[in-house]
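Sample pair:
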Amino acid sequence: MELGYIGFEVADVEAWSRLCTDVIGLMPAAENTDGSIGFRMDERAQRLFLRQGGADDVCALGLCAESIDEYTTTLARLAANHVDTETLSAAVASARGAERGVRLSGPYDVPIEFTTPLRPADVPYAPPYPGEDWLTGNLGVGHVLLLVPDKEVMSRFLCDSFGFRYSNTGKGPWNGVEAAEVDFLNCNARHHSLAPTTVGERLPKLVGHFMLERKSVDAVGLTYDRARKAGLHVTNELGRHTDGALSFYAQTPSGFDFEVGAESILVDDDWQVFELTSYSNWGHAFHPAPPPT
């Protein structure tokens, strides 16, 4: 299984489109049949999509099966756990780049879509910045940090319903929060694809940040330079996470952050879960966003 795509409902689609292409370096895809706008990171039809709307938050976490057998088995597990699902229309499934899929709400109304394996696009992949490749494949797009009132409820749901596993747990200071509690969950060799997080109160958005992973540190640095040149608010300077990733964070037009990094740890069946008390080995200096004017 993989976190195959991420969808966001955003008020300013134009500003987001400039961010995705000019700064992050995603390839625009054709407008989808459901009205959303897709972006590519590799040979898949799309890995991120934008939908016009006022939520300015995540609207789809696209969990994608590795095979039809895994898709069928997982649907059976969802049914056994009494999780209600709604079949995606043919148009929506096609827009996601899948043969078929379902939609469901996780705890705290976290929007999840589960699909068959993603198909390759008909058009060859042509990134805006050749040579700045993304680490995707069966590892998926990267990860999403979810802000929820009780991380254990969310984590238990993902493990019981979709077979996620713990890579690490953590409790420590992050971005002005004295004790941010995080569960780092994997569904393949990527250290974490979803990270339910509790910060002591329910924040207005579900997404804290999303991370996309480059294949090289140089590509991270080039993205950082473009973010600076574009005048984006850099929330966290370059730094090295305890999961190995060298990364930075900057603010999206919707107010939450994107992270671009490289060199994250991969996990395997012999991985031993342990608790983190710090989320960075060095760097990631925090700059609070200025208050809205």
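Residues 2-115 form a domain with the 2,3-Dihydroxybiphenyl 1,2-Dioxygenase; domain 1 fold (CATH 3.10.180.10).
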